[in-house]
Design brief:
Elements lengths: L2 H12 L2 H31 L5 H22 L4 H4 L18 H14 L3 H20 L5 H23 L1
Length: about 170
Amino acid sequence: MNSDFYAKIMRPFQTHPGYISIINVLNRILTLAGFLFYPALLVWMAVMLDKRFFAFLFLPAFFFLAMSRIRKLINSPRPYEVYDIQPLIARDGHGQSFPSRHVFSIFLIGTLWCGTLMPAGIFLLSCGILLAMIRVIAGVHFPKDVLCGAALGIFCGALTLFISAL
């Protein structure tokens, strides 16, 4: 990736300020969807007396904390730090770009939903793809950040499903 890549994908949004608002609203809605679907999953499991409840409660929390720690150690810069670009999503922080925690979370939760109620999981994974695209277009993540976040989210979700089935 280089500054030309970001200039090219950000240009349509920069020339139409209303599009930037759409990007920001979608980013918030999709992030919120991921975070709301997780407690909804836990409530669903509790109501259904699903024996996997505690695995679904504790394993994702462990994976999230472990991934956050690794991300902090790697401390990869963000596109707007590397290139002279203004991100489309307001961002105060520096570093900790790799892997994307937003994308990791929504893919992990989507994978868990796939193992519980497939249509909800497919919906959430689709939201995850859109969120990953938005995070790159907005200049707050590199494609490698969101791809790795998605892969790790799916892996950790699948691992949770596997362990919970034992």
